[in-house]
Amino acid sequence: MAGILEALEENQCDAYVAYDSSDNEDMRYLSGFLATDPYIYVCRKDGGKFLIVSSMEELRARRESPCSIVTRTAAGFA
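Given the sequence above, the corresponding structure tokens read:
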């Protein structure tokens, strides 16, 4: 994650955002979460990490991932 934080600082960005499933090795590594459905990974410049997942995956994501978990509904996605 240090590489992401350095890149955010160098490029004056507030966050890194990725959207994919854990079929993508980078998503699996960053999130620590295994899911075949796509989800959103957010890393803020202050080091905060979040996953935006479906309501159905919420409990499992909370158990598996060190990231803070937000459901799509809570994030404002239908």
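Strands lie at 15-20, 39-44, 49-53, 68-71. Try to locate this feature in the token string yourself.
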